[in-house]
Design a protein that fits this description.
single chain; mainly alpha
Length: 349
């Protein structure tokens, strides 16, 4: 196992080397790819290849916890209250704004189609959002604030790194072992809790890895190691294609592999082509359901919008077109929104 860094070593890290700067660029590039993976999963419903994006949410969880650890490594005395205040403004406030937006859009949709969704789960919507993908924001807000307390306490203790890593690894295994199936009912308390439980192994394993990340980064800098990480990531995706159903083990382990792959050396041309999208990844995640609603209505008709208007493209062709339109819309809309002063209230950071 990698040697765990001690607090004195972490306090001495004041600046990133050029190589580490490049490694953070690859992390941004992977965040953008993961955002596209979420759209891929939601757009390609009914096609087994949609599960290629199943690693995205676990990756986002692990990356968020890793960045908490990086921040505390540079500034271990940072106050928790200030961190919580900043995360509340950057994560939870946009979540509330988007919950209101999606709630209004749903009511407009019901009014246009003369439908009624029944009695809403008001508490569940307040906690986990008015659209099914919004559950991730409160989860990541609570998760990162809790991770801040745990990691800071570990750094201040200054010992027990192997016990820490083994304990959180075991906790993730236990949670994955007893994970329950996701409820079919979107939104509400039950769906939000089961989705949070589904992503919890990634949170635990991220805590296990965090103290060793400086050493892991150096280890991953070797191209031979990077090759094997890439091979394992591709193999994990192949397993997802072969087995259509969602599985907590392969999704969360795949998220860990994707994070490790993000820390390996990439061709600089590829990194520059993708890294710019990392800063927009969370915004793309929040807004993409608007595009999914709109373009599905545009490309499909009939009962539950199941019949394509371009049957000559075939099922897969129409799904790929839907993905391309949603991805383009979400990216452009997010970029445009960030140019306005009110962007901080709708674009999480």
């Amino acid at each position: 196992m990698a040697q765990l860094a001690s607090p004195p070593e972490m306090r001495s890290v004041k600046a990133l080397t050029p190589e580490k700067d490049h490694r953070l660029d690859t992390l941004d590039a992977t965040r953008f790819v993961a955002a596209m993976g979420v759209i891929w999963t939601h757009a390609l419903y009914g096609w087994s290849w949609r599960q290629l994006g199943a690693f995205s949410v676990p990756f986002f969880v692990i990356a968020a916890v890793m960045l908490v650890g990086d921040g505390l490594r540079r500034n271990p005395d940072r106050p928790w209250t200030g961190y919580v205040r900043k995360r509340f403004l950057r994560v939870y406030v946009p979540f509330l704004v988007w919950s209101i937006i999606y709630f209004m859009l749903k009511n407009v949709q019901d009014w246009v189609h003369l439908t009624h969704r029944g009695n809403p789960d008001n508490i569940g919507m307040l906690l986990f959002g008015t659209e099914f993908h919004l559950w991730f924001s409160p989860f990541i807000f609570v998760g990162t604030t809790l991770a801040f307390l745990l990691i800071r306490s570990f750094y201040r203790l200054g010992r027990g790194g192997y016990v820490w890593a083994a304990s959180w690894t075991l906790a993730g295994i236990v949670v994955a072992w007893f994970s329950v199936p996701i409820f079919d009912t979107y939104c509400g308390m039950r769906f939000g809790l089961t989705r949070a439980l589904y992503a919890l192994p990634a949170f635990c394993w991220a805590l296990a890895l965090t103290p060793a990340l400086p050493t892991i980064r150096n280890w991953l800098g070797q191209r031979s190691v990077a090759f094997w990480i890439l091979a394992l990531t591709i193999a994990a995706h192949a397993v997802i294609i072969i087995r259509f159903e969602r599985d907590v083990w392969k999704d969360n382990i795949g998220g860990v592999l994707l994070l490790l792959f993000a820390l390996t050396p990439w061709p600089r041309v590829l990194t520059k082509c993708l890294a710019w999208g990392g800063r927009y990844a969370f915004g793309i995640y929040m807004i993409h359901e608007v595009g999914l609603w709109g373009f599905r209505k545009l490309l499909y008709y009939g009962p539950e919008s199941s019949l394509p208007i371009l049957p000559s493209l075939g099922k897969q062709g129409n799904l790929l077109l839907l993905f391309a339109l949603i991805a383009s819309f979400s990216t452009v809309a997010t970029i445009l929104l960030t140019r306005f002063k009110f962007a901080r209230w709708v674009m999480p950071g």
